[in-house]
Design goal:
The protein is mostly helical. About 75% of the residues lie in helices and about 0% in strands.
């Protein structure tokens, strides 16, 4: 007869092998990055021509800029949620225990790398600012973006952390099924 895999509902080895796994979180972050790049490229390839052909004049496009911005923001948020869910899933699946914690690790790695890239961009931005050489339109009043940008930032942070942790828990589900099969 097979030895039971768990005592009191906890699988053997949790104390030794449980906890946070940096390797799983890192590879989950790589998957999240790859999925976000691929989905954003796909959305841009499909959405760009559709949005470009929807307006006959520049005035029509300018009058609908708010709506276009909201739709683009929602699509961007959905892409990030799917990407972080996939990254959390990979981390949860790679790690034997604590899928939610692995998903949180994916999110933390993504946040740290984003902050580091923002700092590098702020330091080196003026030296390598190729866009300043182009005559692109600017935002008329950058001060009016403050509250909207803050709300968007909080929304992105909350949605991505929940998606990553949910993906991690979903990835861990496979291991629970194996535990139940061994116990049976």
């Amino acid at each position: 007869m097979a030895e039971k895999n768990s005592e009191n509902g906890r699988p053997h080895g949790r104390e030794k092998f449980g906890g946070f796994n940096w390797g799983a979180a890192f590879f989950g972050w790589l998957v999240a990055t790859a999925v976000s790049v691929l989905l954003l490229a796909l959305v841009s390839a499909i959405g760009g021509p559709i949005a470009g052909s929807s307006f006959r004049t520049g005035q029509q496009a300018a009058s609908s800029a708010g709506t276009i911005g909201i739709i683009a923001g929602i699509v961007f948020l959905l892409v990030l949620a799917l990407a972080y869910y996939a990254g959390g899933y990979v981390a949860g699946r790679m790690s034997r225990f604590d899928g939610g914690r692995q998903g949180l690790g994916v999110w933390i790695i993504g946040l740290v790398i984003t902050i580091l890239l923002a700092i590098v961009g702020a330091i080196l931005g003026s030296q390598f600012n190729v866009l300043s050489q182009l005559s692109l339109p600017t935002v008329p009043n950058a001060g009016s973006l403050g509250i909207g940008a803050l709300v968007t930032l909080v929304l992105v942070l909350v949605v991505t952390v929940l998606a990553a942790m949910g993906g991690g828990k979903a990835g861990r589900r496979y291991h629970r099924k194996v535990d139940r099969a061994i116990d049976a």
